[in-house]
Write a structure and sequence with these properties.
Helix content is 37%, strand content 19%. With 367 residues, it is of the alpha/beta class. The strands form two sheets. It has an eight-stranded mixed sheet with strand order 3-4-2-1-5-7-8-6, sandwiched between helices.
């Protein structure tokens, strides 16, 4: 079985500035993905473009602003987008499948498990899954938006080897190359810190919703899940293969992390915390650097109402979140035992496990 590659293509690469599909670009990308597929790799495509493809067709003079208008445009555009992909990939004898996802799907462990099983079966059958956000039912506040984050979550979910985010710029620069002729491309990033985020820049194109910052945020999520990421361009024959093989026109984001299990992905990226626990510096080191569990002795305090089995966020004494975990205590038990030794805890409360959060139920955030 070949390595698994997730490729994300944005609206600006698939549509014209005025809206509507750019058929020649879709043909180009389908050809590049088909070549990658024929090389023995397992290919998944995360695509944007449904709203941009559909808004002209139903009479909007420009990309709509209201949620219901965007959802109507997406309902039309998604069909047009998939038809274009089916025709383009069909010329290479490749079958493609449509999968529409929302944030709610990722937050529900059963639903995302079902989606993963579907993807695994499609890949086993040599079908290329084409994944997009289900724009017609998504609530504005829960949207992936530009699909950069969606592509990172998909890459983690399927334990991809690489995430390739294609855009209309050739990577991350030290400044805006359109305004600063001295800006230099950053070819490789080993750590996504605040310096990297500061140079990421802002807005994207008129037909898309993303900018470089959202792509770096996606790279951060992907690398935390053990997936190497690439952000850059593919404009000529062989460019996509070059990006996969480390010769691409863009920026590579390396990672030392291992792939997370689906369970830990859910805890770290998809769950909704029911409360927050604040810990001291010793507990921060134990959780983040030493791979240990959280004991009551390292806890300063707790907020919110939660029960055993709920996910909680954990923050250091500076208030900065350091990760999430499944808690074995109710909120009142955490408050009653904060700072106490194991012996004292056993005298005060009746808990199944002495660890407030076991290391097997814990995911650290990059700091």
């Amino acid at each position: 079985m070949g390595e698994r590659i997730v490729v994300k293509i944005g609206s600006s690469s698939l549509t014209s500035a005025e809206g509507g599909l750019n058929r020649s670009r879709i043909e180009y990308f389908a050809g590049e993905l088909a070549s990658l597929h024929r090389s023995g790799r397992q290919v998944l495509l995360v695509t944007s473009g449904a709203v941009a493809a559909g808004f002209r067709r139903i009479g909007y003079p420009a990309r709509p602003k209201q949620l219901h208008e965007k959802q109507a445009a997406a309902a039309v555009g998604q069909a047009l987008l998939m038809q274009a992909y089916q025709e383009a990939f069909g010329r290479s004898g490749i079958v493609v499948a449509q999968i529409l996802l929302t944030r709610h799907d990722f937050s529900n462990r059963q639903r995302i498990h079902n989606a993963l099983m579907t993807i695994e079966e499609l890949l086993r059958r040599n079908v290329i899954p084409i994944i997009n956000e289900n724009d017609t039912v998504t609530v504005e506040g829960l949207k992936f938006g530009d699909n950069d984050n969606l592509s990172a979550l998909v890459a983690n979910l399927v334990k991809a080897k690489k995430l390739i985010i294609l855009t209309d710029t050739d990577g991350l620069y030290t400044g805006d190359p359109r305004r600063n002729p001295d800006a230099k491309r950053i070819d490789r990033v080993t750590e996504i810190d605040e310096r990297i985020m500061a140079v990421a820049g802002g807005a994207g194109s008129s037909v898309g919703t993303g900018g470089m910052r959202s792509k770096i945020e996606a790279a951060r999520v992907a690398t935390r899940g053990g997936v190497q990421a690439f952000v850059g361009r593919a404009i000529g024959p062989g460019d996509l293969l070059a990006a996969v093989e480390g010769r691409g026109r863009g920026t590579y984001f390396d990672t030392d992390y291992d792939n997370l299990s689906v369970k830990k992905q859910w805890i770290g990226f998809h769950s909704t915390p029911n409360g927050r626990i604040t810990v001291d510096e010793g507990a921060v080191r134990a959780l983040v650097s030493e791979g240990r569990s959280l004991l009551p002795a390292g806890i300063i305090g707790a907020e919110g109402e939660f029960n055993p089995g709920d996910v909680v966020e954990v923050a250091g004494p500076d208030g900065v979140p350091i990760g999430r975990g499944v808690v074995n205590y109710a909120s009142w038990q955490v408050q009653a035992t904060a700072g106490l030794s194991t012996e004292e805890v056993r005298k005060r409360v009746d808990v199944v496990r002495i660890e407030v959060i076991h290391r097997d139920e814990w995911v650290s955030f990059p700091r």
